[in-house]
Amino acid sequence: MPWLQDGTARVRDPLDTAQHEQAGRDLRDLSTLVIRDSKAADHIALLDPSCRVEPASALIFACLLHLDDREGAHFWL
């Protein structure tokens, strides 16, 4: 639970919670669409740690990480 600076617990507004949950569903849906693109595998194949990463490849990789509930997904987005 998030805390305020004075040490009291922050109570989340139900509307904020609903919007947060909707954003999570939207991100999941968008990530699914991105990785189902016909060129997604080609972009993933371009990922090479020794070279510059193309934005499309990074986006697809981040979507895969997100759908797998990996913590590192935010780095790639």
Overview of this structure, please?
The chain contains four helices and no strands. With 77 residues, the chain is mainly α. It has one domain. Helix 1 (14-35) packs across helix 3. The chain starts with 13 loop residues before the first helix and ends with a helix. The mean pLDDT is 81. Residues 9-20 have a biased composition (Basic and acidic residues). Residues 1-20 are annotated as: Disordered.
Helix content: 55-70%
Ranges where pLDDT stays below 50 over 5 or more residues in a row are: none
E-strand count: 0
Query: Which value, in Å, is the CA radius of gyration?
Result: 17 Å
Q: How many separate domains make up the residues?
A: 1
Main beta-sheet strand count, sense and barrel state: none
Which percent band covers the strand fraction? under 5%
Order of helices and strands: HHHH
Q: In one word, what is the shape?
A: elongated
Instruction: Summarize model confidence as the mean pLDDT.
Output: 81
How far apart the termini lie comes to 25 Å
Structural class: mainly alpha
Number of helices: 4
Features:
about 80 residues; single chain; 4 helices; mainly alpha
